[in-house]
Specification:
single chain, two-stranded parallel ribbon, 162 residues, mainly alpha
């Protein structure tokens, strides 16, 4: 009896992995990703630095993930509807009343809404990226360097006895 192939859909984070942050060197893939402005590669950011206590690790993990996974949808919606409202008021005022609006005014209002949502999303993502870079800079100073320190060797004391 042969096993049937699984028809289950792949996990939503398939192909993406978790970034474990324990020291300064482990921040390098995240910083490189932000410098090259690539798509998000990591499904999760986990702080595992022994230099930080549990509450600090949780604080930093939430702070980094909030900005790393920020999509800008709330700002896009807000700015889109603000532009929509402003466009409706402007068109009604300029045309002399609601009864004088034409289909071209509808296109103008739709274009204003679309432009507002695009601008809102772009601005929110840019600000989240800046916050993330600032947070990474702060965290970088708190973490150990990650470089192996040479072990101290026992050496005799040379000198003049007095």
């Amino acid at each position: 009896m042969e096993a049937e192939p699984s028809s289950a859909a792949p996990a939503p984070n398939a192909g993406r992995h978790e970034l474990r942050i324990a020291d300064q060197r482990s921040l390098e893939p995240l910083i490189a990703e932000l410098e090259h402005d690539t798509h998000r590669r990591f499904a999760r950011l986990r702080i595992e630095a022994k230099a930080l206590d549990a509450s600090e690790r949780l604080h930093w993990q939430e702070r980094l993930e909030n900005d790393y996974f920020a999509c800008g949808c709330a700002a896009a919606t807000t700015l889109g509807f603000a532009c929509l409202g402003a466009a409706v008021v402007a068109r009604i005022t300029l045309t002399g009343g609601i009864m004088r609006l034409s289909w071209t005014d509808g296109l103008f209002v739709a274009a204003a809404f679309f432009a507002g949502t695009l601008a809102g999303k772009a601005i929110a993502r840019h600000l989240a990226r800046r916050r993330l870079l600032r947070a990474l800079d702060e965290l970088h100073r708190l973490l150990p360097s990650g470089e192996e320190k040479p072990e101290a060797t026992a050496q005799g004391i040379c000198g003049v006895s007095g």
